[in-house]
Specification:
Elongation Factor Tu (Ef-tu), domain 3; 20% helix; 6-stranded mixed beta sheet; 8-stranded antiparallel beta sheet; globular
Length: 430
């Protein structure tokens, strides 16, 4: 029995994982959709279901409100909105899933950026009665910026639009025009009713004109982006391990998480920023040693040479060095109520490195409605998306975001309040 349990557990751990986010405007049904996914896929425990039933009755709902499965904060339940990112986990026989349910209100756009930053796919909901709105464009633009490979446009509340094929096709046609102006790679369109479950887990008998996959079937078959280990080696050093013991007086290791690529014992590596070289002597993980390790594994590296290596340094291979520079262009999603202006100074956090940076230029902001560049207003306010240039107090070692989402991203932090002010994606100079 124990052997069978271990076998089942190992099988679960080996299952492929898909991370996806939901986004959309207010009341488009994001939380209800996730609740329906969990409910129809038999991923809700009985005590959870009973709690939601009780909460639904307390709020005066005649039917069970599946949105309450994800709206976990009391303020969310009372207001009937999603405020913070809610993460949910479930699995089918084919795949494991992590869902990030993000808010629809424009003032919580920053939460959508957080939830989508690690996603393999984005499910963007549209109310069939309202069609494409500003938040649809905003979330699509963010999905494009964050390099999400698969976008699913779920046209929800089809029951309130008479299950009309014409309504669905008109929305699909309008959204196709947006796709043509963005760098979205793979876009899928599904007409659904999250409340009643049409085309969510089971095919709808109300929309026989739709011949495509259900939402769950599509999520089970989308390709998962697992290419971090195929990128060049990037190992930001997080901590230097020097045990204070006579038994380990010669032990020195550099701990961190492999941001990308792989490393093997015997590999010749370069330590940045000194550009000194050494050879990997050993790779340690907890209480064992490995012959090789690949991203996103957390390990400790031991080198053959006793070098000056500290937190914020990066270990790479000589044939594939990152960019090095202090003059950096980036697209920034502004997350703070204090606006960004040219000349402002921030703490810049990039991988495990932390430096100061000054905003040297605001090239343009993006008009979310028209997707055009705004050049006559250089003040970047909360939820704005802008292309800016910063100058850092010392050079960073980075990649472009388009090639590496880990080493191509950074965070701007208010030096007075230590609030996260902006999320940046390093881009080609403008």
């Amino acid at each position: 029995m124990r052997r069978e349990a271990l076998s089942a557990m190992n099988g679960y751990l080996d299952m492929e994982l898909l991370r996806f986010t939901t986004a959309g405007s207010v009341d488009d049904g994001k939380s209800t959709l996730i609740g329906r996914l969990l409910y129809d896929s038999k991923s809700v425990f009985e005590d959870q279901l009973e709690a939601v039933k009780t909460a639904s009755e307390r709020l005066g709902n005649e039917e069970i409100n599946l949105a309450l499965l994800t709206d976990g904060l009391r303020a969310e339940r009372e207001q009937g909105i999603t405020i913070d990112v809610a993460y949910r986990y479930f699995a089918t026989p084919k795949r494991k899933f992590i869902i990030a349910d993000t808010p629809g209100h424009i003032e919580y756009t920053r939460n959508m950026v957080t939830g989508a930053s690690t996603a393999d796919a984005a499910v963007i909901l549209v109310d069939a009665r309202n069609g494409i709105v500003e938040q649809t464009k905003r979330h699509s633009y963010i999905a494009s910026l964050l390099g999400i490979d698969n976008v699913i446009l779920a046209v929800n509340k089809m029951d309130l639009a008479g299950f009309s094929e014409e309504v669905f096709l008109n929305i699909k046609s309008e959204y196709a025009g947006i796709v043509n102006r963005l760098t979205l790679k793979n876009v899928h369109y599904i007409p659904i009713s999250a409340r009643d479950g049409d085309n969510v887990v089971n095919p709808s008998g109300n929309m026989l004109w739709y011949k495509g996959a259900t939402l769950l079937n599509l999520l089970e078959t989308l390709p998962v982006k697992e290419d971090l280990d195929k990128l060049p080696l990037r190992f930001p050093v997080q901590y230097v391990i020097r045990p204070q013991s006579d038994n380990f007086h010669d032990y020195r290791a550099y701990a961190g998480r492999l941001a990308s690529g792989g490393v093997k014992v015997g590999d010749r590596v370069v330590i940045l920023p000194s550009f000194t070289e050494s050879t990997v002597k050993a790779i340690d993980e907890a209480d064992r040693s490995l012959d090789a390790a690949f991203a996103p594994r957390s390990v400790s590296l031991r080198l053959n040479d006793n070098l000056d290596v500290s937190r914020g340094n990066m270990i790479v291979k000589s044939g594939s060095l990152p960019f090095t520079g202090a003059d950096i262009s980036l697209l920034v999603c502004w997350l703070n109520h204090r606006p960004l202006n040219v000349g402002d100074k921030y703490i810049v956090r990039h991988t495990t490195d932390e430096v100061f940076g000054i905003v040297k230029e605001v090239a343009f902001k993006v008009n979310i409605n028209t997707l055009e560049n705004i050049t006559d207003d250089k003040v970047v306010r909360m939820n704005d998306i802008a292309h800016i240039r910063i100058k850092t107090s010392k050079p960073l070692h980075y990649d472009l975001y388009a090639g590496n989402r880990v080493t191509g991203s950074l965070v701007l932090i208010n030096e007075a309040t230590f609030e996260t002010a902006g999320a940046g994606m390093i881009a080609e100079p403008f």
